[in-house]
Amino acid sequence: MKRNTLILLSLIVGLILAAVPVLAHHSISAEFDTTKPIKFAGKVKSVDWMNPHIYVNIEAKDEAGKTIVYQVEGGPPNSLFRQGWRKDTLKPGDAVEVSGVRAKKADSMRIGTAQIKMPDGRIFARGSATAAAQ
Amino acid sequence: MSLLEFCEWLENTQIGTGIRESVWVFPIIEGTHVLALAISVGAILWFDLRTLGINMRGQAISEVYRQVKPLMIVGFVIMLATGLLLFWAHAVQCYNNVFFRFKLAAMFMAGVNAAYYHFKTERTIDDWDKFPVPPASVRMAGLLSLIFWAGVIASGRLMAYTF
Predict the structure, then answer these.
(1) Of B36, B118, B120, B130, nearest in space to B83 by CA
(2) CA distance to B41, B90, B149, per residue, from B153 (Å)
(3) Mind listing the pLDDT tens digit for each residue in A16-71?
(4) Which of B11, B15, B21 should be substituted to probe chain A, the one whose Cβ sees the most A Cβ atoms within 10 Å?
(5) How far is residue A88's CA from residue A81's CA, in Å, rounded to a whole number?
(6) What is the Cα B50 distance to its own chain's centre?
(7) Dihedral of CA B77/B79/B84/B85: which sign?
(8) pLDDT at A130
(9) Binary contact (B27, A81; C-beta < 8 A)
(10) Taking CA atoms, which of A102, B1, B135, B162 is between 20 and 30 Å from B70?
(11) Residue B130 CB: number of other CB atoms within 10 A?
């Protein structure tokens, strides 16, 4: 009886732990294609600081020299905030370098798993702690 | 004002923007929504299994209902309240989201099914209250409830993948 309770308890705890990332955000592969990496330099147009994850709109030039706006996906405000990022850390006009992956949809301008290199060299990344290291 | 214009207005109110841009409020509302769902639909599940004649077959159906009803109602009220707040923050995306429409439709059907059971099928409960396996009309209500609520949960979850 006691042993059954223990097994049940560990099962419950395991299920709760397994559910945590699901609650945090959706999976990368649902929207993005990790085999389509992209790197570009551009200027911050605006920041949509919002749940469940933020978007940084970045103006850049495509291969043909045409100006386009990429929507670069970032982490949720909560984890960004706890890493020290704020709504106004990235400012309109900031020159940045972005590396990430393209969306599966060919006409989508969204960029996933992105790292945004700021003018001062700091790296604004999705859910990772590289902020202070660079 | 069209429905879409209303959604645009709603999510740009101070409360809508506040929730959407919050650091703590949004994840707390979201977590509460899911926990309330577990309470409400969890309670509904036990009642549905009883009407299907799968579980608690020795208990009268009315008695099982009496026991799970408070959980159903408390869970549902919290789920609805937190759900409305989440909608408030993302009204336009919800409006444009096909899974949100599925979700509303499935919720509506679950409501129609429950109303039909309580106002029509349940009238003859004295005849089958203590049956281990009740008549087909009662089992059908339980089965439909399970299907519709599964639809609500699945489409709610799918919304997050298409936001």
Answers:
(1) B36
(2) 9, 18, 6
(3) 666 554 444 567 777 888 899 999 999 999 999 999 889 999 999 888 889 999 99
(4) B21
(5) 11
(6) 18
(7) positive
(8) 45
(9) no
(10) B135
(11) 15
